[in-house]
């Protein structure tokens, strides 16, 4: 988790826009194009994680029970971390967004 967390900084802003197919996938999953979503997807690490989840979902990787269990465990762990860090930590907003994206896949 720490290798991911260290990437959620302004120093890790992406020089690339999030691919349109990923943006459309998010919208189709109910995560609309808001200021918060755009802000999260400016981060290179978040962009990579969300793109990977979108690709995984698109190719049907979430069909196996092992995959569903792993995604459920990941979501639970992210939500537990959010509770531990509290609402005032800006890192929490990244974890919350990522948990929301994971929940759309499972």
What labels describe this entry?
106 residues, mainly alpha, 6 helices, 68% helix, globular
Overall shape: globular
Largest sheet: none
Rg measurement, Å: 13 Å
Number of helices: 6
By DSSP, the count of extended strands is 0
Mean pLDDT: 86
Secondary-structure element string: HHHHHH
Which strand-content bin applies to the residues?
under 5%
Q: Poorly predicted ranges (pLDDT <50, ≥5 residues)?
A: none
Helix content: 55-70%
Structural class: mainly alpha
Layout of helices and strands, plus pairs?
Layout: H1 2-5, H2 20-28, H3 35-41, H4 44-58, H5 65-85, H6 90-105
Helix pairs in contact: 4-6, 5-6
Protein described:
The chain is globular and about 35 Å long. The chain has 106 residues and is an all-alpha fold. The protein has 6 helices and no strands. The two termini are 20 Å apart.
Produce a short descriptive summary:
With 106 residues, the chain is an all-alpha fold.
């Amino acid at each position: 988790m720490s290798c991911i967390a260290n990437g959620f900084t302004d120093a890790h802003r992406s020089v690339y826009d999030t691919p349109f197919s990923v943006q459309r996938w998010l919208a189709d999953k109910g995560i609309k194009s808001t200021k918060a979503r755009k802000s999260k997807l400016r981060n290179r690490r978040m962009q990579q994680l969300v793109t990977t989840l979108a690709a995984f979902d698109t190719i049907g990787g979430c069909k196996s029970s092992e995959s569903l269990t792993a995604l459920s465990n990941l979501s639970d762990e992210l939500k537990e971390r959010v509770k531990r860090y509290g609402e005032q930590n800006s890192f929490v907003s990244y974890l919350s967004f990522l948990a929301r994206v994971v929940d759309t896949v499972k």
